[in-house]
Design brief:
Length: 258
């Protein structure tokens, strides 16, 4: 299995990261993508990847922190992406739920990341919350200027955004949210997305799946995300679904398998 979104530099893992990784490997997780949420955290995240043969990393600025990196250039992102272990741009995008950064700052940040993705050919990891229409508008506008690979991570958006993103060839990652009792709308949308466009993530330490909801999430719980996805698609073999998602992820993150 490939956990395509782990926040291993989070404070929640400060005391026992090696044990967390060992449990994940024992549970069948063979690859991890460590996510960069702030550009000033990039070296911390990259160090984790360099120290582990089965971990890769991204480079980017989460929309919450867009206000802190208004001077970040496309060139700085592209330069960081030259590292052999850096295989994706982001996470980036739009989040209007909390409003930690102004809309204009988030949009500017998003567009800079898109340009870095276009220049490098690396997948763009998109976080979107309560911003479906504008996210789709920006992706379509930028795609007309030149294509780039898209991943809508931890997808909880609506059907319209999913359909518009699919038209751009996007992939979608799913998390433990699929197993939540109150996530019927999310499951309904994911059920319409072809399995060959879906990959798995935990987004740990957040969003622990049932039966671990309320606890710190770990990559070792990824199989429960696969089980929830398998149930949606009427598949009995969660490991088969996990294998399909792993192949999808390796198709998307070409730098890992090249």
């Amino acid at each position: 299995m490939f956990d395509t979104h782990v926040n291993l530099h989070a404070e929640a893992f400060a005391d026992d990261l090696e044990a967390v990784l060992a449990r994940a490997r024992d549970a069948g997780v063979t690859r991890f993508l460590a996510i960069c949420d702030r550009f000033d955290n990039y070296h911390r995240v990259a160090e984790i990847a360099v120290g582990n043969a089965d971990i890769w990393n991204s480079v980017g600025v989460h929309p919450h922190y867009a206000k802190d990196f208004t001077g970040l250039s496309v060139e700085a992102l592209v330069e960081a992406a030259e590292d052999a272990k850096t295989v994706a741009i982001g996470e980036t995008g739009l989040d209007f739920h909390y409003g930690y950064s102004a809309e204009a700052a988030q949009v500017d940040n998003f567009r800079r990341h898109i340009e870095a993705s276009r220049k490098t050919g690396l997948p763009l990891i998109v976080h979107t919350r309560e911003a479906d229409d504008l996210t789709a508008d920006i992706l379509e506008d930028e795609f007309r200027r030149g294509p780039f690979p898209i991943l809508l991570h931890c997808y909880t958006g609506g059907q319209a955004l999913a359909d518009r993103a699919l038209d751009l060839g996007a992939y979608f990652s799913v998390s433990g949210i699929l197993s939540f009792k109150n996530a019927k709308d999310v499951r309904a949308v994911i059920a319409t997305i072809p399995l060959d466009r879906v990959i798995l993530e935990t987004d740990c330490p957040y969003l622990a799946p049932v039966p671990f909801r309320g606890r710190r999430n770990e990559p070792a719980f990824l199989i429960h995300v696969a089980e929830a996805l398998a149930a949606i698609h009427g598949e009995e073999d969660a490991l088969h679904v996990a294998s399909v998602c792993e192949e999808n992820a390796l198709t998307l993150f070409k730098k890992i398998s090249s």
